[in-house]
Fold each of these.
Amino acid sequence: MDYGFFGIMDTIFPLMFGAVFLLIVGVMILALVRSASEWSSNNSSPVLSVDARVVSKRTNITRHMSQADSSHMTRNSTVYYATFQVESGDRMELRMSGREYGLLAEGDRGKLTFQGTRYRGFERRLI
C-alpha cells in the first residue's frame, strides 16, 4: 500500500496540529501559573516604605490591530514603569498607573511604598 505524499500528510498533519495545539495550551497555562504566583507572592509580602530616588521612567506601548468589516481599527495600550534607587544603591523597576507616572519626575526624592513587585505610592520630599 503506497499512499504517496498525500498519504503521509494525512498521517503527519493531525500529529503536528495536535502538538502545536498542546504547545499553545501549555504556554497559556504556564503564563496563568506565573501570574497567579506573582500575585500570591505580592500579597504575602510586607508593605514597605523606604527613602528612594526616581532614577528613570519608561513606557511600553503595544499596538493592537483588528479588522472590523472593511475598516481597520487600531488600539494602543501603554504600560508605565519607574525605576527607583534606594539608600543601599539597589534599584527596582515598578509598574504603575499613568496618573502616578505623570506625577513623577526623574530625580525626585521621597518615600517609596511598595509590596513585593507592586507599586503602592511615592510621597515626594521637598528639599
Amino acid sequence: MNQRLEDLLTKAWGPSLPVIIVTAIVALLLPILVHTFLYRARTPTSLPSFLLVGPSGSGKTSLLTVFENGSPAPTHLSQTPSTVQVQLPPSTKADSQKYRSEHDPTAKQRPKFLIIDTPGHGKLRNHAFEQLRKPQPHLKGIIFVVDSASLSSDTPGRSAAGLTEAAQYLHDILLLLQKRYTGAKSSKGPPELPVLIAANKLDLFTALPAQLVKSALEAEITRIRTTRAKGLLDSAVKDETLEEEREWLGDGGEGKFEFGQMEEVNVPIKVVGGNVIGADGSDISGWWEWIGEQL
C-alpha cells in the first residue's frame, strides 16, 4: 500500500506531460478567477438612477431620447415605465470627479447612470408612486418635467389647466417624499433626495421663465393644499369616527407653500429652464449640470 502511494506521488511530481498541462492551466486560470471574484465583490451591482416624471405632453419622453441619443426622436404616449442607460456628456463633470487630478485615469471616465421614465397620464402615475414607495438605494434624484408654456392663463384670477395638472402631480410626489422622511424608522432619516423641476419649452414665446414657473407652482400647490385640507376637515366633521391620515405638505399646511420648506425633509428643489426641441436645437445644459452635481 505504501509502495503504491509512493509510486503515485512520484508520478504526480515527476516531469510528465499531464502534470505539466495541469500545472500550466492552474497557473493561468487562478489569477483570472481571483481577479474576477474581487472585481465583482467591490464593483457596485447597480448604477445610480434618476426617476423621470411629469404630466403628459410636458416633453418628458422626448427628453429621455435626448439624454440617450443626444437628439430628440419621435415618441408616443408612454404606457409602461422604461429604463435606459445614459452616460454623462464630456462637457459635464460629475461632482465626485471635481477634485481628482487630471492625471488620474478615472477622472477621464464618463459616469454611467440609469433614467427611469414613467407614464405621465393621470391613470398611470401609480408607476411613479410605486417607485417612490419602495426602497431605492441607488436613486440619486427626481426630474419633474413641466411644460412652461402651458402654465399661464388668459383668464385673470383663474389657474391654467396645465398649471393645475402639473401642480397636483408635483404635490403628490412631494407629499410622498415628505412621508418618506417623517415615516423613517431611524432618527437620522433617509438620505437627501433632490428634485429638479425641468421647465421645458422655454424657446416658445408664451413660456414662463424659470423663476415665474417656480412662483406659479408654489402658489398653485398652496391652493391645492388648502382645498384638500378643507375637504378632509369637512369629512371629519360629518363622520367623527373617520380616521384620516392628515399630513399636510410643508409647514403644517398653514400659510404659503414654498419649495424651500422641503429642505427640512431632505428634499432640496431646484427649478432650471431649458428646451428639448427648438429652432436652434436642444438646450438642456442646465439639466445636465444638475445631474452631474448628484453623481
